[in-house]
């Protein structure tokens, strides 16, 4: 059984077909598959590898789907690129939902993706601090004045959130000035936990994870356009014996009920 933690995000990848988000035909196919999920064929299991930032949302939706269809959904949450590498090495996943396109592109190059991936969701980066902190930054430029080892960021080579954070800082000419303050973590949840426990003063994380944290101040100071759009593609893993079940669950996630549940947790439509 896969672990619940991991890491995620290849760098310097080439664009691929996954960059085409929410094609009409592709989305229609997922929605049709979702509609068929409740039509017979109950029982069985589907194994989903998914970004750590989706833990809360997918755990609830998986339980709802299982109660409705009788098909058990088993999750392995972690850093997206680490999960993709596990699949490339033969891990028996049926569906991959990473926080970024790079893990999908890695698997496309390895011939491990079945059909056309669909961009399912979007998100936003924020900075978090402990509630009541003596000082908080008013903008990203102020991070250049933070002391060494005081800002948690998911490791850019492991997690798309870290790559997005580094892209934002680089686009503003701040990365070199901030690098000494950065504490890399395996994924978004680990960065958030560092602030909750007082191990670091700040973290750059997804808005949805920040909203689920405890005792935090959320600072919406990462400018739009300072990094590529944050997307969560969903893709069926090639060669699996449970591809039909994977497509049914993907269709359920693309449907109106799941979309509303994602929105309540702060996720946005894919852009």
Describe the structure.
By secondary structure, the protein is α/β, with parallel strands linked by helices. It is 36% helix and 21% strand. The chain is built from ten helices and ten strands. Helix 2 links the parallel strand 1 and strand 2. The protein is globular. 49% of the residues are buried.
Quick one: overall form? Answer: globular
Contiguous helical run count: 10
N-to-C terminal Cα separation, in Å?
A: 34 Å
Tell me the series of helices and strands, N- to C-terminal.
Answer: HEHEHEHEEEHHEHEHEEHH
Using the CA coordinates, give the radius of gyration.
18 Å
Q: Order of strands across the biggest sheet?
A: 2-1-3-10-4
- State which percent range the strand residues make up: 15-25%
Low-confidence stretches: 1-42
The proportion of residues forming helix, as a percent range, comes to: 25-40%
| Total strands | 10
Q: Mean pLDDT, rounded to whole units?
A: 85
- Outline the biggest β-sheet: 5 strands, mixed
Keywords:
10 strands; 5-stranded mixed β-sheet; alpha/beta; 271 residues; globular; 10 helices
How would the blueprint of this fold be written?
Layout: H1 24-36, E1 45-51, H2 55-69, E2 72-78, H3 80-88, E3 95-97, H4 102-109, E4 113-122, E5 125-130, E6 151-154, H5 160-171, H6 175-178, E7 182-185, H7 188-196, E8 202-206, H8 207-212, E9 216-219, E10 231-237, H9 243-254, H10 256-264
Parallel strand pairs: 1-2, 1-3, 6-7, 6-8
Antiparallel strand pairs: 3-10, 4-10, 5-8, 5-9
Helix pairs in contact: 1-9, 3-4
């Amino acid at each position: 059984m896969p672990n619940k933690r991991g890491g995620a995000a290849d760098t310097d990848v080439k664009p691929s077909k996954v960059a085409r988000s929410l094609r009409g035909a592709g989305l229609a196919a997922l929605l049709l598959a979702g509609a068929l999920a409740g039509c017979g064929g109950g029982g069985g299991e589907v194994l989903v590898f998914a970004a750590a930032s989706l833990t809360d949302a997918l755990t609830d939706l998986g339980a709802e789907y299982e109660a409705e269809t009788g098909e058990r959904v088993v999750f392995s949450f972690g850093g997206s690129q680490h999960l993709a590498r596990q699949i490339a090495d033969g891990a028996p996943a049926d569906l991959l939902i990473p926080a970024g396109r790079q893990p999908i592109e890695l698997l496309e190059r390895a011939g491990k993706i079945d059909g056309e991936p669909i961009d399912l969701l979007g998100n936003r980066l924020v900075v978090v601090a402990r509630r009541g902190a003596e000082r908080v930054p008013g903008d990203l430029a102020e991070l250049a004045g933070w002391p060494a080892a005081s800002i948690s960021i998911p490791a850019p080579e492991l997690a798309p959130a870290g790559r997005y954070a580094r892209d934002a800082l680089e686009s503003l000419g701040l990365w070199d000035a901030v690098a000494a303050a950065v504490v890399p973590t395996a994924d978004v949840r680990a960065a958030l936990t560092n602030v909750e426990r007082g191990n670091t003063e700040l973290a750059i994380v997804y808005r949805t994870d920040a909203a689920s944290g405890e005792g935090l101040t959320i600072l919406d100071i990462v400018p739009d356009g300072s990094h590529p759009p944050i997307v969560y593609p969903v893709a069926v893993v090639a060669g699996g014996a449970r591809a039909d079940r994977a497509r049914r669950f993907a269709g359920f996630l693309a449907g109106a009920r799941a979309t509303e549940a994602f929105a309540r947790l702060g996720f946005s439509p894919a852009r």
